[in-house]
Amino acid sequence: MSDYRYPLNDITFSLQQVAGFSRVNALRSDEVSEDLVDAILNEAGKLCEQVIAPINHSGDQEGSRIVNGSVHEAKGFKKAFKSYVEGGWGSLSGAEEYGGQGLPFALSAAVSEGVQAANLAFSLCPLLNQGAIEAIETHASNELKETYLPKMISGEWVGSMNLTEPAAGSDLAAIQTKAIPEDKHYRLFGQKIFITWGDHQMTDNIIHLVLARLPDAPEGVKGISLFIVPKFLLDEAGNPTTSNDVVPVSVEKKLGIHASPTCVMSFGDNEGAIGYLVGEENRGLMAMFTMMNNARQGVGLQGLAISERAYQQALEYAQERKQGVAKDRSKKASIIEHPDVLRMLMTMKSQIDAMRSLVYSAAVEIDLANLTEGEEQANHNERNGILTPIVKGWVTEQAQEITSLAIQVHGGVGFIEETGVAQHARDARILPIYEGTNGIQALDLIGRKLHADQGKGMSRLLADIESELTSIETETTLPDVMNNISLVRKSLNELDNAQKECLKYMNEDPVNATGSAYSLMMLMGYTIGGWLQIKAQSKVSSSSVMSDIQKSSWNQSVNFYCKHILPRTNSYYQAIMFSSTTISDLSLSSFSR
Prior knowledge:
Elements: H1 8-18, H2 22-25, H3 34-52, H4 56-62, E1 65-67, E2 70-72, H5 77-86, H6 105-118, H7 120-139, H8 142-154, E3 157-162, E4 178-182, E5 185-196, E6 205-212, E7 225-230, E8 232-234, E9 240-243, E10 246-251, E11 262-267, E12 273-278, H9 284-320, E13 322-325, E14 332-334, H10 339-371, H11 374-410, H12 421-428, H13 438-451, H14 456-475, H15 479-508, H16 510-513, H17 517-540, H18 548-565, H19 568-578
Parallel strand pairs: 3-6
Antiparallel strand pairs: 1-2, 4-5, 5-11, 5-12, 6-7, 7-12, 8-9, 10-11, 13-14
Helix pairs in contact: 1-10, 1-17, 3-6, 6-7, 6-9, 6-10, 7-8, 7-9, 9-10, 9-11, 9-12, 10-11, 10-17, 10-18, 11-12, 11-13, 11-17, 13-15, 13-17, 14-15, 14-17, 15-17, 15-18, 15-19, 17-18, 17-19
């Protein structure tokens, strides 16, 4: 079992050189210097490597449990979370008016990559808190903001998201939890399932954000409201006092992320759980999407992080494990000398490099949207809206392949729990399901992001990619870059034709057309990944953070990606071009036995 190493140089290069973090600085009144970024990420690396990573395996083995009606997390987690809070890590991008540090979201994401790679189960607690913070900050009254945000941003309290119910699943229109008005608050009655970190002992209070229906609410999603339901009610000074009527009923036994308590939560078993309306009555769906969009990019980042962790472990094992003989047959060889192992490792690495550049490019778009106004802001929001389902969907799909390959590199011992590598695959498996399955992400892409504006935003993205490829082509003299540009252009042309075909399908028959949605999402992911790899290759030779060996490694990564990974786009392209004659022909009888 290997130790985790925070990949500082790779993260810094992707953030600064590929994602264009300098564009954020250009719009800020106070510049976040490269020295400050380096200092923050160095310290974050120490926290992740020395405090959070060492309790990953033990937490997986121990899990969480309910004792006397409360969830108790695995040993060491409360102490690690205290270190996280005292270091101010959760408040990096928090609003300064509520005690946050006001630093860019993209920088906070770079810190989060390390936390998530070090311990995915642990990282889910601050991830969900961030989504809750954003929902409250965007939609709640000033009174609620002033009451809850300072403690949530500091990490003294954390938030949880309570959306799903036993009979609802992803269909939030079917939720049945009730909210009864009473004076200045509401009383909630109902049950929620799959609530990540729904209860624990790591903080003084837990701020549940709960979707529920008012007695006279209209049917469907138009009748959903959002409420703050604290675990402990507050006294006049804002301090937690008596318990609210909300309890964890059970903790789910899961395939992975064992140390993250996934709770069944019951609201109002007695007099009713007291809650406070966030935003307007029957407008909770809008606030819910604020939470979900934040979490979707966070889950995509988790896909990158767990892939990096699995790759590091596979690489170390391949370097140490002796099996077979060297090419000259003079000695036993490390298995990394075998071509098939090299293939697997570079399949992992090249995709991780592309995934990282995508994740940070999307994070920078969030910052740019927050720092601009009018048409410019709308353009950044549009771009981020297109990238979000790809970050969540494509990246977490790649995490399945990469964590599985990590087991394969280990051979038989990879299937043994003591090795630790199997945990990464088990933990990663939830990511395509979290925060809307990847099928739902694909529906969002083809529906809200392609069909809604008749492909205008998508066309602008493709035009920007082509413009940047042309610019790089004009400036470079490197043969590898020139060759790779031609390969990316082939996939870009496929994507252009495919998105036009998908739009035609959606205009003619939007139900059957969604059968192409997943292929479009994957085609976009691989193609955008190729474009970002070209950006990286055009800048890596001048990088000040990488050694010559690291520069060579990145060049090989780009070459491998373009020649071995990028051709996958053709299969998705063909699936889209023929989907009108296949998906529409399928029926329930197609699957009879």
